[in-house]
TrEMBL record:
Name the UniProt record assigns to this protein: Uncharacterized protein
Keyword Heme part of the UniProt annotation: no
Gene3D superfamilies listed in its UniProt record: Paired amphipathic helix (1.20.1160.11)
UniProt keyword annotations, A-Z: Nucleus
Species of the source: Panaeolus cyanescens
Annotated coiled-coil segments of the chain: none
Localization (cell): Nucleus
GO CC entries: nucleus
């Protein structure tokens, strides 16, 4: 997909959201734009961008479903019309592997352990944990290292680093809590309480070869 089409689809989707919320779109618009940018830069993969959009647009299942317009062709998002139902089904094209079910955020034991330690060793362990945690999404760890380099060199101040780390690790509350070991006295990241969605992934049944078709093919052989 070329960049012009991506931009057009993003603007179309944000327009839908703006019509729904009218004069209350500021915070929602900014959060969505940040999430979509992270998705385009591949610091959020498909499962996590769907989760992030669901959290931002909690209570509006139709808008969550419409996010399919920004996903690769063949993806469909299915939500319950009941806004209290936090189960989302995602139909994945048959030629693509199924991601693992994404469960509600629970504190990662290692990240929680990091937050309970202080000193140089704990900071080094945090760096190692980020590198390991996002081994399959290297752009996330690279972005983290770049942010920390700017912070060490005093090219960004503490409020800025808090905002950028919150944007980067917004789906990982335990990592946000553990990051407080890097902050000076008087500063603290308090992770926001997020809706607990479970996201399941399926191949579309009508894309799967039927048993009868398989039998016919075997007989033809």
């Amino acid at each position: 997909m070329d960049s012009d089409m991506e931009m057009e689809q993003t603007l179309d989707y944000l327009s839908l959201v703006r019509k729904r919320f009218r004069y209350q779109t500021g915070d929602i618009h900014n959060k969505l734009l940040t999430a979509i940018t992270q998705y385009r830069l591949e610091t959020l993969d498909i499962p996590h961008i769907i989760l992030r959009v669901a959290q931002i647009l909690d209570g509006h299942p139709d808008l969550i479903e419409e996010f399919k317009m920004l996903l690769p062709e063949g993806y469909r998002i299915q939500c319950s019309p009941d806004p209290n139902n936090k189960m989302i089904n995602v139909i994945v094209p048959i030629h693509e592997p199924l991601p693992q079910t994404l469960y509600p955020n629970t504190p990662n034991a290692m990240a929680m352990a990091l937050s309970q330690n202080i000193g140089v060793d704990a900071k080094l362990r945090y760096y190692e944990f980020v590198k390991t945690q996002f081994e399959e999404q290297p752009s996330v760890s690279i972005t983290f290292f770049d942010i920390m380099k700017e912070y060490r060199e005093e090219r960004i101040d503490t409020p800025t680093v808090i905002q950028r780390i919150t944007d980067l690790f917004g789906l990982y509350p335990a990592l946000l809590t553990a990051f407080n070991i890097f902050l000076p006295p008087g500063y603290e990241i308090v992770p926001p309480k997020l809706p607990s969605y479970t996201i399941n992934f399926f191949h579309a049944p009508d894309e799967m070869p039927s048993q009868g078709a398989d039998d016919d093919a075997m007989m033809a052989d």
